[in-house]
Amino acid sequence: MSDQDDATRRGAATPAWTRERATRVGRDAGTVAPIIYPPDRPLDPSVHIWDTWLLRNRDGSIAEIDGWRVILSLTAPSDLLPGKRHDVATIRYFYSRDGRRWHSGGPVFSGGELGSRQWAGSVLHDDGDVYLYYTAAGESDEAHLSYTQYLAMADGGTVEADEEGLRIEGPWEHRAVLHPDGDRYETESQSRGMTYTFRDPWFYEDPETGRTYLVFEGNTPVPEGSEACGGDPAQQEFNGSVGLAESPTGDPTEWELREPLLDAVCVNQELERPHVVRRDGRYYLFVSSHRHTFAPGIDGVDGFYGFVADSLRGEYRPLNDSGLVVANPENAPFQAYSWLAFDHPDDLLVNSFFGYFDYDRPSLDEVAQLPESEQFRRFGGTLAPTLRIELDGDRSRIVGTLEHGHIPLGSEPLPDSPFDERAAEPSGYGREGGHPEPGGTDGF
Ligand code: FRU
C-alpha cells in the first residue's frame, strides 16, 4: 500500500474487535486445548524457554539450512524464579534436523544489542542473510529497569551449518527501526492503561501484492475526555492494537509506520505477538491475550485469538464469532501462552510454551505466594505440545496435538492419528470441560 493509499485508509475506521464480539468469548469443545503434562525432558534444562519463533524464508515458509531448521526463543537461566524471567530475557537459538530433537546453540547476540533486555520478534533468512527483528525493552545500561519499548533489528550476522550442527554468529549491526508516533501508536507517556506495549515485530510479505510488512503489538491513543467507549474512562484504558509498518522498497531494514490492522479499544489492552498466516486465499491474523487484560465487563481467557479477512488490510472478522481459537482448560488456565501459528498442508499448526501447570486459580497473582520450590516445579519453561487446528473459513477447531516442541516442515507428513504422536492420552477431546485434574493442587 502506497503512502497515498495509507492516507486514504486513515479516513476509514480501523477494523475493530468489538465488545459485542469479545463478550462471546467462552470455552467450548473446539477451542479448549488438551491438558499438558510435563515432557520427559525439557528442551534445554539450563534455561526457561518462552516466546519462540521460527527462522523463515521471505515467503513465510520454514527455512532449512543444510538440513537444519532453527527456532529462536526468549530464555532466562532456569535457576531464576520464573516470574522474573521477563527482566533478563535473552534470545537464544536452537536447531534440529527433524523438528523434534533440538540442540542448544546459545545466545544469538554477544554485546551491542539494544534495550536492557530483548523481547519477542521474528527472523528472516533471505538470500543467505539473516535479519533479526526484536523488541528493545528498557534502555541499554539503565540503572533501574524501565518498560520503554521500541522495535529494533540486527543484521550482518551469519548462519553456518555442517553435518555436526549449526552456528549463528555476529558481528551484528543493531539499529532501532520504529518508535511510536503518538498519533497512530501510543507513546509510553500517553499511556493510561495497566501496561504499555510497542513490541513484537513480525516480518510478513504479502504473497498477493509482494509488499513487505512488519506487524507488531501496540496501543491506540485514547486521550482523556475522548468519546470512545461511551466516554467511560475505565474502559478507555484498554486500547490494544495490531500495528503495521511497511518497507516501501522491500528492503528489510527500512520501515515506515502505517495505520493499525486491527484495534481492540474498549476491549483489550494487549494483542500480543500478532502474526498472519495466509490459507485458502484468506488472511488469518492471530494474537495471544490474557484474561486480565480484557476491559471490565468482558470475561476472557488466556488464549489464542484469531481474525480473518479477504485481504491483508481488509475488514477482519473474529473467528468463531468471538475471536477465541485456543483456550487453556478451565482447570489449568495458565498452562500455555504465546501461541504461534504456522502453515502446513494438513492442518494449521500452533506452537506455544508450557507455562504454569498444576495451578487452577483464576489469576496468576497468587503464584508469587507459593513457596519458591513450588513456583519452580509448576512452571513448564519449555515448548508445549504443538496443536493441530482445522481452519474452515471463519471457523476453527482443535483436532489434535503433536509432541512438545515438534515443528514439522510442510513437506513432512503429519501422523495419521491427529492425536499426540507419542500416544499420550488424548484427554478430554470433544468434551466440554472434560479434562482430568492435572494431579491435585497441593491444597493451594
Ligand atoms: C508474550 C510477551 C511478549 C513480550 C514477551 C516479554 O509472552 O509479553 O509480548 O515480547 O512476552 O517476555
pLDDT averaged residue by residue: 92
CATH class: Mainly Beta
* Hetero compounds: beta-D-fructofuranose
Q: Could you tell me the number of beta strands? A: 24
Alpha carbon gyration radius: 20 Å
Task: Determine the N-to-C terminus distance.
Answer: 53 Å
Strand order of the largest sheet: 4-3-2-1-5-6-7-10
Draw up the topology in text.
Elements: H1 3-11, H2 19-22, E1 47-57, E2 69-77, E3 90-96, E4 103-107, E5 117-126, E6 129-137, E7 149-155, E8 158-161, E9 166-169, E10 173-178, E11 199-205, E12 212-219, H3 233-236, E13 239-247, E14 256-265, E15 272-279, E16 282-289, E17 303-309, E18 317-318, E19 324-327, E20 336-342, E21 348-356, H4 372-377, E22 379-383, E23 385-392, E24 395-404
Parallel strand pairs: 1-5
Antiparallel strand pairs: 1-2, 2-3, 3-4, 5-6, 6-7, 7-10, 8-9, 11-12, 12-13, 13-14, 15-16, 16-17, 17-18, 17-19, 20-21, 21-22, 21-23, 23-24
Bound molecules: beta-D-fructofuranose.
The site of beta-D-fructofuranose (FRU) has 15 residues, from strand 1, strand 5, strand 11, strand 15 and strand 20.
Structure notes:
Strand 17 (about 305-310) and strand 18 form a beta hairpin. It is globular, with a radius of gyration of 20 Å. The protein has about 450 residues and is mostly beta strands. Mean pLDDT is about 90; it is low at about 425-444. The N and C termini lie far apart (about 55 Å). The protein has helices at about 5-10, 20, 235, 370-375, and strands at about 45-55, 70-75, 90-95, 105, 115-125, 130-135, 150-155, 160, 165-170, 175-180, 200-205, 210-220, 240-245, 255-265, 270-280, 280-290, 305-310, 315-320, 325, 335-340, 350-355, 380-385, 385-390, 395-405. It binds beta-D-fructofuranose. Beta-D-fructofuranose binds near residues 74, 135, 200 and 272.
